Amino acid sequence: MLATQITDWMLKGMTGKETDAPLSDCWMGLMRMEGETLVEPTATDYARTHIGHTTYSSSSDIKMDDPDNGTIKNKEYIMFNETQSAWGQVSYFGLFATETGGSALITGSLTQEVTIDANKVPLFNIGAFTITIRDNVE
Asked: What is the reported pTM?
């Protein structure tokens, strides 16, 4: 069984809230499945959004709240740039260590597939983005 302290530390490390972790600088991307591969939108105006960096002095730079009992939620809006063109359907998210390039270190499915049209601002309302680490041992 994973101790709560371990899961909470892991969540901090995955969301840019822990200096000694793979994602001390954390970018979120939106993704969809193409065949058996997760890909980000290919629209030229698509960009990942920054959700955390432990060396920033402003608390607004860290979008995630403190983990509690193996669960972490966003404490601020997570907003992407306003779309100039349609980004198409997305049904997954990815957390990345870089603003561009590289592979997602963590991926997960969205609650529902979303179609992102032109002239929209994709966002997660406060408390709407949640990651939970569960111990699957019964």
From this structure: 0.83
